[in-house]
Structure formats: C-alpha cells, structure tokens
Amino acid sequence: MRSALQPMTLSRVPDALIRHPLPCVRCKYDLLGLEARGTCPECGASILNSLAARLDLDSDSFLPMHGVRRVATTIFTAAIGLAGGSCVFLALLAQVASHAFESDGFTHAVPVLRGIAVGCTLLGFLAFIAVLPWIRHREFIRAHILGAGGFAMWYAAAIQPPSVIIATYAALPAAMVLLAVTPLLRDLGPRSRAYRSARATAQRIDGLLLSTGLAGGASATAELLASTTNSDDIATVLRLTAGASATLSLIGFCYLLLNSIWILRAAFRPLLTIEQAFGVEASATNPTIRK
Ligand SMILES: [Zn+2]
C-alpha cells in the first residue's frame, strides 16, 4: 500500500498551501486554499492524510504518454475481445455437450456463445482501428497491425459454425492480439500501481501466449495425427492438452479484463502530482512516449 507523506516530500514545496481542488479524505470537504499541515475545518481530519490518499509520489518516474486514456480504453476493449472471442471454443464445447447429453440447455447456449464471439471480436477490431491513437511509433504501428488484423481474422472465424478446426484456428488471432497488447500493457500497467499493490500491476503475457500457442498447436497436431495415422491414443492426449490449455488461456483473459479495469480507472482518474497539488510548475512537461 501507499506510504504516508514524508517530510522530504513537503520540503520540495516552497509554500504549503493546497492549490488544487482536494476532497477531505473523511468528509469530502474541498481543502483548496488551506495549509497542508492543518486540519479539515469541517471534520478535523489531518489535511496530510487527505494529501497522502491523492498524491502520486512516484509520478517523476513516468514521462507523459500520448493518449493515455485512449490506450487504456484499447487495452480494456482488447481484453473484452479476448475473453469474448474465446466463446468460439466454448460454443464448440456446448455443441459437443448438446450431442452427448441431448440437453436443450447446451443446444440453446451455442448460438448465444457464437453471438458473444462475433460481437466481442468486432468490438476489439473497432478499438484498434478507431480508439488506439495513430502514432508513428514502432509499438503503436505494431499494435495497430497485429490487433486489428488479429481481431479481423478472429471475427471471420467466429461467424462460421463451431468446429474443432475453427476453435484451433482461433489460437492464431488470439496470439496476435496478445502480442499487440503486450507493449501497451507494459507501459500502462505500472501507472495503476497507486490504486493497488505494485505486484498486481505487472501481468505477464508470456504465460498467456504459451497456453494459447499450446492450445492451438496441440489441437492442430491431434487433427493431423487423427487424419493421417491411427494414433488415436496420442491424438486424445493432445486434444485433452489443447482443451486444458484453452481453459487456462480463458482464465488468463478474464484476469486481464479485471487488470484492464484498474488501468482504465487509473488513466481516467490520475492521482495529483506534488506540483499540481501545490501549484508549482511541473519540471518535465515535454510530452513523449515512454520507451
Ligand atoms: Zn473533513
């Protein structure tokens, strides 16, 4: 969790009057214009406590990034697309289950899951086209191509009837979208640290890429073996491996979705810098992309 304000921090402030709207941490009274070392006139809470809750003490370590809110919205929408697009896999499971158990519940679930996959992949495509800023920067260009291309390919798969081939193929666009999101997440993730533990802000995408690749690779190999040889046992093991990996990926996509909500919150409601709170000129205001 965040530490309280330290004397070192206040020594950076020439005159300790609050010069930015600052709600009292206890009663929400606006402390603008009051002495930082004083107390809230409404409830008596220490103003330093209100500052500690809203100040970003590490802001110096982040250079301003172009279009933070649009990038955060893209990550959030991509996470919806990844989780929703995985419904091509769930639709296949529901179809298999409806044949196996002759259950109406599974039969009705198939078109719903297909609809979710179609809608979410389309949403993901639109985010990479219309929301992610068009910046001439290697990471952004790569994100545009891999993200929009991946979701376009995934959408083309989602509108087909569910099948093993479609579910297997979906691993490829999923991996493309993960590669598109990785550099954006690496930059924006740590910015949400003020709202939660630093450890939770760094989600590693490598594991997700591995499970997604394993799901597609094992499933494709199983289909190849089943069609060319009589290695049914090996094919069954590979299919089970593919199913387990796809399930792991789906769980990872849901975690990424939760993670992206925190990032979205941090981007739309950034904490105050010391300079903002005390009305001092910021030291580095040159907008650039953090490398
Ligand atoms: Zn108060």
Describe this structure in words.
This protein has 291 residues and is mainly alpha-helical. It has 2 domains: 75 residues, no CATH class; 201 residues, no CATH class. It is 65% helix and 0% strand. It is built from 12 helices and no strands. Helix 4 runs antiparallel to helix 5, helix 6 packs antiparallel against helix 8 and helix 8 runs antiparallel to helix 10. The longest helix has 37 residues. It is elongated, with a radius of gyration of 24 Å. The site of zinc ion (ZN) has 8 residues, from loops.
Average per-residue pLDDT, rounded, comes to 84
Domain module count: 2
- SS elements, strand count: 0
The helical percent reads: 55-70%
Q: Structural class of the secondary structure composition? A: mainly alpha
Low-confidence runs: 282-291
Q: How does the overall form come out from the CA principal axes?
A: elongated
Largest sheet features: none
Gap from first CA to last CA: 26 Å
Task: Provide the gyration radius in Å.
Answer: 24 Å
Succession of helices and strands = HHHHHHHHHHHH
Strand content: under 5%
The helix count comes to 12
Question: Which ligands accompany this protein?
Answer: zinc ion
Please name the defining characteristics of this protein.
291 residues; mainly alpha; 2 domains; 12 helices; 65% helix; elongated; binds zinc ion
